[in-house]
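Run log, item B.
One chain of 160 residues. Sequence copied directly from the ordering sheet:
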Amino acid sequence: MDDHLARNFSPPVTEASAPAPGFRELYRWFAPWFCGACLVAVALYGLLSARSGSGAGMTTAGLATSAVAVAALFFGLKNYWDGASVGLCAPMLVEGQIALVVVVIAMTGLAIAGLLLAADAVDGVWRYIGYALFVASLLVVAANLKHYFDARDAAADGGR
């Protein structure tokens, strides 16, 4: 009886098993859902901070954060379902050299603005928003630099 169960319910063992999926394949599977989950978490955090706000600034910042996160989620899902991009995070990555310079300059400006906002903040919420803007801007710059050089290396390897 046990031999019958082992034969019928165990996976078949073959010589040519499919290889395990690589990092790019796993990224393609999970990146859209991870980015969507992050946007949902940001939206919920915005609503919770607006609800427990100690002043008008906290309520306004929480509602604005939630509205921007929900809008980004809807536009990202629309692009994903229309087949315009690989996932929710893909539109922020550039491949051209001039576009990379523009993104780095714009995100550096936002990072500096975030630091200035955090330094000038009287309320704790605006300080955290400034720091979050700074960190998010640096992450966008780092992701774009990595993507640009990966694409350049892939083009160089493909030409050989």
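Observations after the first pass:
- The mean pLDDT is 76.
- The radius of gyration is 22 Å.
Flagged for discussion on Thursday.
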